[in-house]
Design goal:
- By secondary structure, this protein is mainly α.
- The chain contains twelve helices and no strands.
- The radius of gyration is 23 Å and the shape is globular.
- It starts with 9 loop residues before the first helix and ends with a helix.
């Protein structure tokens, strides 16, 4: 008389769980094929930051002043200021931006593609820059700020990161959306309270809200192109486990 049919061995069950987790993680690791825009832009930021740390400080300052999107440059050299101001970081450390891109720009690009992710980044950078500097220009024109405020260095990628975070929140499930927007609001509030800078106080909230304003455009665009690990899962774990891995990926 045969006994009850044994279930799957514990070791194999644990292996299956590890395999599913590995697929989930690997599907989110930025690669040149999956995230050409995020990795390409990050490479530019690493290059300019490395140059700023190694080159002559006077040369670096001149280049940054020429690239700055301050009020003076926006009036006289708008295209140059808007294009090149986002290729530098404020400071000499680029590592924090690696994590910023990994958790904002890269996930957005996986969901909407490189072209639309680049468009979101550019729209946020331009919108936040123009509005924040318009406030500065108006304040100088009305005598509320000194004219030297028009020449204050304004460089960095924070607007692009924040607009990407705001846009990404609209593609998440309600709980993830609330978490992303809540964390972003806390971050922006902390920066405003710590810096007490007019440009930061205007530009960062504008960038985040610009991302929120792009939700409908992004949702109506082409579907995600990042649900490909299922093919590899079929060969490695069989159809049933592949379906589970795919469902897990679809819920992200």
């Amino acid at each position: 008389m045969s006994g009850p049919r044994p279930g799957p061995p514990y070791g194999m069950l644990r292996f299956g769980l590890r395999t599913g987790l590995a697929v989930w993680v690997l599907a989110r690791v930025p690669t040149p094929r999956r995230n050409p825009f995020a990795l390409g832009y990050l490479a530019v930021v690493v290059a300019t930051t490395t140059f700023a740390g190694l080159a002559d400080p006077d040369l670096v300052l001149r280049l940054q002043e020429a690239s700055s999107s301050d009020g003076h440059n926006l009036v006289h050299h708008p295209l140059r200021a808007l294009l090149f101001s986002g290729f530098w970081v404020a400071g000499t450390i680029w590592m924090p931006y690696l994590w910023a891109f990994a958790f904002t720009v890269a996930p957005l690009e996986r969901r909407v593609g490189a072209v639309r992710a680049a468009a979101v980044f550019g729209i946020g950078h331009v919108t936040a820059t123009v509005l924040s500097q318009s406030v500065v220009i108006t304040a100088v024109a009305t005598g509320r700020m000194e004219p030297r405020a028009l020449d204050c260095l304004d460089i960095g990628v924070s607007y692009g990161v924040l607009v990407s975070l705001g846009a990404l929140a609209g593609l998440l499930r309600p709980r993830g959306r609330l978490l992303a927007l809540g964390g972003a609001a806390v971050l922006v509030a902390e920066q405003i309270a710590g810096d007490r800078d007019l440009v930061t106080g205007v530009g960062h909230p504008v960038a985040l809200l610009t991302g929120v304003a792009l939700w409908r455009w992004l949702r109506n665009g082409p579907g995600p192109r990042w649900r490909r690990p299922e093919a590899a899962a079929v060969g490695a774990t069989g159809p049933a486990q592949a379906q589970g891995a795919t469902a897990l990926l679809d819920r992200a």
